[in-house]
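Here comes my example:
=====
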Amino acid sequence: MSMTLAKGGSRLAYSNMSPLGPAGLAMPYDTTPHLPPAGLGGEQGSSLLQTHGEREDSAEKTLKPDTYNKPPPTPDYMKKWRKDMCPGKVVLHPGYSSDTDHERLAVYGRPEPVGVKVHEVLNTAPKSELIDKAIDKKESIYLSHKREPLGTGYLRGHELPADLQYEKGFGRPTPQDVSGDASKGLLHPLEKVHDPVEHDLYVRSHANYAPGEQRHRGYTWVDQGGKIDPGFYAFGADIKAREIEGVAKSLNPKIDPNSVPPAVVVEKRLEEFRDVHTEPLAAVKSVGHGHITTHDRVFGMPSQKGPEWGVRECIGSYPIPEQAPDTDLGRSIRPGWRNVQPDGRTFGTPTIRSDIAAPSLKSVADHQNYGDEVTADALLYPPRFADGGVSSDDFLEARSQQDIADIFASAGLQMSDEELASTYAKAAQLDPKGLVSIESFRRTLNS
């Protein structure tokens, strides 16, 4: 006869074939020693009872199974099927997790020969003059090194005549005579510095202020301390003492010496005593009989006895058509007196009086534009020779052969009579009327 007892997660069996204990009872034994016990409270493969009958499972072992009863580790053949969530760990696919062929190779791919190192690229400067000479000798075999040396101009192999090699530059110098200086000043005028007195006159007559210049109307500012310079004086009201640190005082009233402390809660009897024995402002004094009037009752004489006619009544009493503006508002509806503008006609005086002839001598006080002034584009981007009083029209004005010869001779260009006549004839062919200007003569000469 045998009996099985399951207690504490262990399978115990009693059999009449078991050896007897001290009390004459059969000792229990495990019928399935190859299986781990179910549940918590006992170590794997251990029995609940020892030889002397003491229990091996305790409260500490039961509450700390991760320390005393750790789960068995995952077998190696099953690890590749488990997902490891450890941060930073590389998780391989189960299909090639057991592939170890890559361990035989050091690196993948085809090795490349070692070329230029990084320190050789960064370290381009020669270490000494000897190394510099050696580098120049190696580079001398290249045509680009011969024709385009580093730090010098492009060498084309041209040999200039001896009479053109000057110390201060190439070309022929301009003769420094009276006519040469005048021509040079015409082509490249010197910057004119305006006299402050002259500038003040133009400001007064033409209101010609410089960019960013402050307008001074000649006022004399005086206060208690004497004269005031508008350029360094700040006009306006001073800041009051109570306005300083206004936000800070609003958030923290204690820092304001003039602030009123908040109300303090006192006893109700004290407030009732003050209510009866003090004279309140703009209110009826309480004599202790209670409030016999309603809250909507106001003492005194009313400001109006009946409803008055206001803006709302004025607007609301008229229908929508009567509230519309009058038909003759801003225009004339009387026949024969209507200001109907004919096609192509504009009333008023034009800003640019191109309809009248400009006076022969224009006064400095005449601000009228007669159509002979430059446009805004010319004011923003003036011509090259505008400071010298020479406009672009002067280069396009038709001139005679003698005038052209004098101008270019003054500029330092010496030409023979045959060359001058030939160039002038070619320039005359560019114009239908046969007129020649400085610009057309210059282009023909440069072609």
Summary: Residues 185 and 388 are 8 Å apart (CA to CA).
